[in-house]
Write a structure and sequence with these properties.
By secondary structure, the chain is an alpha/beta fold. The protein is about 40% helix and about 15% strand. Helix 8 links the parallel strand 7 and strand 8.
């Protein structure tokens, strides 16, 4: 009789502990609904319109950073201001140069995961330039030397073919006209604390990229054990394939949320 009473008591205790653990887990497992998007060089935040629409249709709260492209420090500061304004865990995504920015800014406590969109992904003490030099540029690549003000632009004659070959001529013309003034010193600014070493990372390889060799993207992502998705598209894959890019961001949010 005493054994049966002890058994029933133990069973009740285990059941109670299980219910407490389940309640604690359910309460603390937050579904990530905040997305912060960071643009790269030779672009501005307007290029994320399609990704923004695809994500907001699915109930995500999206913020697009207008980073000044004046230095790594300035762009990280702009990104952290956007992260400060989020009300909970956030997926931080960056395109091209924006990958360097999220690698540094991604240490923000609200960042739960990182998404690299045809982006640079340096390690500690590495620069974007270091990775650019690991493979020959495509003939279509139109990045010009810095001008007298230290600003780098994309050659207008090569912009469509080199940056965004899979968008219309009219859209490419607007993108060229609205590109930000990108300071060359950004390319040689080293990362100090690579967030992908501490946070889960997802990476998109744009297989038709003429601005960053796709093999460079693959090599960076493999080195860091980033989950890779390959999408047929130009360097501006986030503009030409917004739903596919949004799907990777959604996958990151769900994976990090444990859904």
């Amino acid at each position: 009789m005493k054994k049966q009473t002890l058994f029933n008591s133990l069973k009740s205790t285990i059941l109670a502990l299980t219910l407490v653990l389940f309640t604690f887990t359910a309460t603390n497992a937050q579904t990530i609904k905040n997305i912060v998007l960071v643009h790269g060089a030779f672009a501005d935040g307007s290029g994320y319109k399609g990704v923004y629409e695809a994500l907001t249709r699915q109930g995500y709260h999206v913020t697009v950073v207008q980073n000044p492209l004046t230095s790594l420090e300035d762009d990280v500061r702009a990104t952290k201001l956007a992260l400060d304004a989020q009300d909970g865990p956030t997926i931080l995504a960056g395109h091209s140069w924006g990958g360097v920015v999220i690698t540094e800014a991604g240490n923000h406590p609200k960042v739960a995961g990182l998404v690299y969109i045809a982006a640079f992904q340096p390690d500690n003490n590495e620069t974007a330039l270091k990775w650019v030099q690991t493979a020959p540029p495509a003939p279509e690549n139109g990045i010009l030397p810095a001008d007298a003000n230290g600003i780098v632009y994309y050659d207008k004659a090569k912009f469509h073919a080199g940056f965004c070959a899979d968008v219309s001529k009219e859209d490419a013309a607007f993108m060229y006209a609205s590109q930000g003034a990108f300071y060359a010193k950004c390319f040689i600014a080293p990362v100090t604390d690579a967030a992908w070493r501490h946070k889960p990372a997802f990476g998109i390889v744009a297989t038709e990229d003429k601005s960053i060799n796709p093999d460079i993207e693959r090599n960076m992502y493999k080195r860091s054990n980033t989950k890779i998705t390959e999408i047929k598209g130009s360097h501006a894959v986030y503009i030409s394939q917004p739903q596919k890019v949004a799907n990777v961001i959604i996958e990151a949010a769900k994976t990090v949320s444990g859904k």
